[in-house]
Amino acid sequence: MCVCPPLLLKIALLMVIFPTIAVNIMEVIYNGVNSKAEAHQIAINLNLVACFIALLSLAFGIYGTIMNTIFIIRLLMFVLITFCLFKIVMWIVCKNLSPMSAEDVTHVWFQLNTGLSIICSVLMVIFCMRLHEQTRQFQLGY
Asked: Where are the transmembrane segments (predicted)?
């Protein structure tokens, strides 16, 4: 298991959650402003819905991280892993089906958001495992 203290993991996680929220908002704004192609509107709308769900869960994740609420952290972990898988599948599908739509759908903010979400997911899993280990040690009396 990770030997990092939970406070260090909490600070690292919060330092990744805030830029992830900012990049997520920038992706939503970019999709709203530069949405010209009618042919790719379904993919862009699916991406917007996923981004709004991720934004909502990241906002709750800040509270869960600060208060060490394992239920909220596990919920955010599930949502972020699903979000990352959705983004990766969407990226692969758009690149393989039509390279023209890939430029409209998978822009720089999309790619940056995917990368930060993966980093945030990894830190969330490590933090959740550390909190679970601490509560288990407390319950067992170590």
From this structure: 7-30, 42-63, 75-93, 108-129
SS3 letters across 60-112: HHHHHHHHCCHHHHHHHHHHHHHHHHHHHHHHHHHHHHCHHHHHHHCCHHHHH
Amino acid at 45: N
Burial of 36 (0-12, 13-18, 19+ CB in 10 A): exposed
What is the C-alpha to C-alpha distance for residues 33 and 55, in angstroms, rounded to an integer?
A: 19
55: Cβ–Cβ under 8 A, 6 or more apart, which residues?
A: 21, 24, 25, 28
- Dump pLDDT digits (tens) for 16-75: 999 999 999 999 999 888 877 676 788 888 999 999 999 999 999 999 999 988 999 999
